[in-house]
Predict the structure.
Amino acid sequence: MEIRDLVEAIRTRRVRISDHAYDEASNDGLNFDEIFNSALGGEIIEAYPEDRPYPSCLVYGQTPRGDAVHSVWAYHAQQRWAVLVTVYRPDPAGWIDWRERRSER
């Protein structure tokens, strides 16, 4: 999956949202406009090509206020739709520039 695939799915409203993503968005006070916009202007920072049933990736983006958002998306290439698996506001203690995981010591 490439970011352009995800962007196209969001722009054409070919998106499904997992129950887990609904719960996590609510827990972190994120609305879906913020989440979708963060992905539209975001970047893939980790790829999980072996995930099943579809390959997935971790996207870093920002809300219009500049708050960091991480979202995990799966992508069904044949049907060209995306699934928002989970979303969260990353903990600054666990990330370098929101893009690289800090190593655990």
Remarks:
- The beta strands are 15-17, 43-48, 56-62, 68-76, 81-88, 95-96, 100-101.
- The mean pLDDT is 96.
